[in-house]
Specification:
158 residues; single chain; alpha+beta; 16% helix; globular
Length: 158
Amino acid sequence: MMLASFLIATPASAQFWQCAPFARMVSGIEIYGNAGTWWGQAAGRYDRGQSPQVGSVMVMKPHGKMRVGHVAMVSRIVSPREIKVTHANWSRRGGVERDVRVVDVSDAGDWSRVKVWFASMGHVGQTSYPTFGFVYAKPATTQFASAKGGAVTHAALL
């Protein structure tokens, strides 16, 4: 409740955001730590894959000057090779950007390499960034044995 009132009183654009805390807040995916660790941390906790879905988080690998990777929430699917993301700390240090263009430039069309819009350049630029894939907001289904001997899924327990 207190967090909600804080966010209402101070818009996201007025704060200094790192990509990981911002992605966690807007996606509901409860992963902590540097962006480059999200893929590994999601294993067994959240479904992961190579296809973008609205609300999922694209996890970019550390690359060049981006030493700790980057995460961005998918806000819209434009086409099989283009999405829009909402993310922080990309074009402007600490700033939030909504519906930013991301293009799949991988040879296989599997979202393993992307180009991302930079506001200061007005286009996606020349650099292609490697990605791990997408972490989906719905927790991974885990089965537990019930007291009656049947299986109960984690989702059924929530």
